[in-house]
Amino acid sequence: MSSFGGRMAEYPSLSIDRFDRDNLLAKAFFLSHCHKDHMKGLKAPALQRRLECSLKLRLYCSPVTKEILLTSSKYKFWENYIAAIEVETPTQISLVDEAAGKKEDILVTLLPAGHCPGSVMFLFEGMGGTVLYTGDFRLASGEAARLEWLHSGGRVKDISTVYLDTTFCDPRFYQIPSREECLNGIMQLVGSWVTLSPYHVVWLNCKAAYGYEYLFTNLSEEFGIQVHLNKLDMFKNMPEILHHVTMDRMTQIHACRHPKEDYFVRANRLPCGNIAADGTPLRIISIKPSTMWFAERIKRANVIVRTSESCYRACFSFHSSFTEIKDFLSYIQPVTVHANVLPMGKTYEEVKEILKSFCRKDCGDEAVYKPLGKLKRWRQSFSNEGVPSSTDGDIDGLFDDYHVIPVKRALCVPPPSPPTDRREPDDEVLVNSEPPACFIPEFHDCEESNEEDEEEEIDGANAEETSAPRASGGAGQRAGGTASEETIAPSWHSFFQRERDEDWEREMAPHSPKLFSDSEDGDSTHSIPSSSQSTHISERASQGSGLETE
DNA sequence: GCGATCAGCT
DNA sequence: CACAGCTGATCGC
Asked: Which nucleotide has the least CA–C1' distance to A172?
């Protein structure tokens, strides 16, 4: 959760991701993405009043963020005060002091942050120097090098300060499997289930927040099955998402929510209450995206963990891991860095100390901080009214070496580890060189591990301990169900006959499914085909009743 | 009645 | 397994 106060020392008249208290006095507002903890005060009457009294005040964000924000009626009043800025399009903004009549121009560039739809980082350039506010982000190691606007003249820009998403800035979160690895694991699990029969459905237990959309679109694309959501209006102008989601409950992949969803799922019901038209009980598995991390370098990661008979956790993170943060910051090499988030159980000083080690070092008389050069050209500028006032499409000359990885500053890093080396996360950095002139602590050797109590290895003996009795008088919940949630009888059968009509009938065994069980209890019907080696699904004996829904 | 804050619970 | 946000209780206005 962001604890950033909203303002940066270098540009104190801007407010970012906080809109309460002193931030109300800002000359311009910025929203990095649409998560509530970055929107504090954004719908407060005090801010509404402030807007109505000013001709100049604008909220700057990405076009997607604007779309999402304005979909919510609570934020509709922003309609005339939002200036969407295209991503990766340097844009000039005039900050006007309406009382003093003074004006200051800054250049802002939105960089894709990989956190959720519309999420961006803000790169500010102006009299306060070059400052990067990351918002929340997840970039894989090496991705900073591909962000054009972090560079100039083939080199990384001279960035004085970074305001950084430090959610996982703790060696405990040393490594998180990549987006692709996680997605592949989930795809295989989903695929191995939904192909068994039309009655095999998956419930993705996603939090009520943006950021899972690429999961939905990829699953839908792969299996030709749209994902059921409670509402879609926020995606109405995003066809690339809209095509893959649906409000039709008659589908095999669900990410719908219900306040009592755990009750539903325990009773073998989907949160939306959907059932098969012919009364055949659905076979539901739940997959809960969670952050799973690895304190040590391990060769093969389990990105899926089975927690009970029909419940799985799948690795999923919208924040960069410790390694990714380190890579990002080491590449940017700012003079100073501020933590936007205090990771659980860490003090600000501890985080600061870690971050400092990734920043630019004071090495003797090497030029440490060069003043900002002349600003280059920009494509488009906004007047204070938020209207694009000019267009200058010619930016190509700025970055003709686009495909060449820009050269980093040659600071503080002696051979044999030249600064231009791009390290892969797996490279063994700690063995290959003398300590650099500026000693950089490494965290590779940390002994911390989340593995000890996780028991992620397959435990066939316990894996079937899932028919344990319900903790409570669960008998009151009949699978066939309470009548209140059902409305119209869905034409389940015909729906799927369009899609595929063979193969599944023979799979419709009457026994209860035992998923991914390696045990030989004789009732196992579900196993990931040969691909299980690459999926890294592990079983974990359920600690509780075996009927947990998370 | 509304908003802010916090505990509790995913 | 730790992110993001909901619900409900409490308090102040």
From this structure: C1
* pLDDT tens for each residue of A419-429: 333 333 332 22
Summarize pLDDT for A53-68 with one digit per residue, the tens. Answer: 999 999 999 999 999 9
DSSP alpha helices (H): ranges in A35-163? 45-52, 63-71
Under DSSP, is residue A324 helix (H, G, I), strand (E, B) or coil?
helix
Residue A210: which nucleotide is closest by CA–C1'? C4
Element containing residue A83 per DSSP (H, E): strand A82-84
Query: Does nucleic acid strand B have an atom less than 7 angstroms from the CB of A45?
Result: yes
| pLDDT at residue A300 in the model | 57
Q: How far is the CA of A260 from the C1' of B6 (A)?
A: 22
Task: Kindly give the residue spans of alpha helices, DSSP state H, lying in A410-471.
Answer: 460-463
Q: How many CA atoms lie within 13 A of A412 on its CB side?
A: 17
The tokens describing A184, both together, are: 């592949």
Whole-structure pTM value: 0.74
Q: Which nucleotides of C are covered by protein (CB under 7 A)?
A: 1-7
Quick one: how far is CA A541 from the chain centroid?
A: 28
Nucleic strand B within 7 A of Cβ A36 = no
- Could you give the CA distance from residue A118 to residue A63 in angstroms, rounded to a whole number? 7
User: What was the pLDDT predicted at A535?
Assistant: 52
Report CA torsion sign: A365, A371, A375, A381: positive
> Which bases on strand B have an atom closer than 7 Å to a protein beta carbon?
3-4, 10
Which nucleotide lies nearest residue A453, CA to C1'? Answer: C1
Output the distance from A2 CA to B6 C1' rounded to whole Å. Answer: 17
The set of residues, in sequence order, having a beta carbon less than 8 Å from that of A321 and lying 6+ positions away, is A168, A173, A174, A175, A176, A293
Q: How far is the CA of A41 from the C1' of B6 (A)?
A: 18
Separation in Å: C5 C1' and A2 CA: 14
Q: Is the CB of residue A232 less than 8 Å from the CB of residue A247?
A: yes
**By mean pLDDT, which of A92-106, A117-131, A375-389 is the weakest?**
A375-389
Which of residues A511 and A21 earns the better pLDDT score?
A: A21
